[in-house]
Design brief:
- With 147 residues, the chain is of the alpha+beta class.
- The protein has a single domain, classed as GMP Synthetase, Chain A, domain 3 (2-Layer Sandwich).
- Helices cover 28% and strands 18% of the residues.
- The protein contains four helices and five strands.
- Strand 1 and strand 2 form a beta hairpin.
- The radius of gyration is 16 Å and the shape is globular.
C-alpha cells in the first residue's frame, strides 16, 4: 500500500489502482464499500478503465448520494494530487456523469442516485444550499450556499 506523504507517484497502473483504493477508503461518505453508506443505499464505486500516457479513464458504477459530477471531480482531485503527471481524468462513457437516465421520449429510465434517506438533499437544494458540500453524514452547520 502507498505510504502517505511520500512525494508524487509516477503514473502506472499499479499506482493508479492503489490511489483509487485509497480514495475509496478516505471518502467514507461517498462510496458503497463503507458500512454506513451501504446502509442508506449508496452502492457507488470507481474503477480504472484505461491509462494512455498521462490520460486516465475511469468508470463510475452504482448509486451515489453526491452528484456523479461531484464524485468525478473529487476522485480527479484526489488522484491528481498524488500522481501530478496526470493531465486528464475522464469517464469511459459520458452517461456515467448523469444522475438520471432518460429515454428518447424524456421518460426516466434510471435514477442513479441513492435514496435521500432523510430527505436532506432536496430540502437543502430548494433552500439554496449545495448538498455536495455537506454530504449525507456531515455536520448540519457546515452548509455552503450555491454560488
Amino acid at each position: 500500500m502507498l505510504a502517505v506523504g511520500h512525494g508524487p507517484l509516477p503514473c502506472t497502473e499499479g499506482n493508479l489502482l492503489e490511489v483509487l483504493q485509497l480514495c475509496r477508503e478516505s471518502n467514507d461518505d461517498m462510496f458503497g464499500c463503507h458500512e454506513r453508506c451501504a446502509a442508506i443505499g449508496i452502492t457507488g464505486d470507481v474503477q480504472l478503465v484505461d491509462i494512455e500516457g498521462p490520460f486516465v479513464t475511469i468508470g463510475l458504477s452504482g448509486r451515489f448520494w453526491h452528484r456523479r459530477r461531484t464524485v468525478l471531480q473529487r476522485v480527479g482531485a484526489f488522484v491528481s494530487q498524488r500522481i501530478p503527471e496526470i493531465v486528464e481524468i475522464t469517464l469511459a462513457d459520458p452517461a456515467m456523469a448523469e444522475d438520471m437516465e432518460y429515454d428518447a421520449d424524456g421518460m426516466l429510465v434510471e435514477d442513479k442516485r441513492s435514496l435521500d434517506y432523510n430527505y436532506d438533499r432536496e430540502t437543502m437544494a430548494r433552500n439554496g444550499y449545495d448538498p455536495d458540500a455537506r454530504g449525507p453524514f456531515a455536520d448540519r452547520n457546515a452548509l455552503s450556499v450555491f454560488v
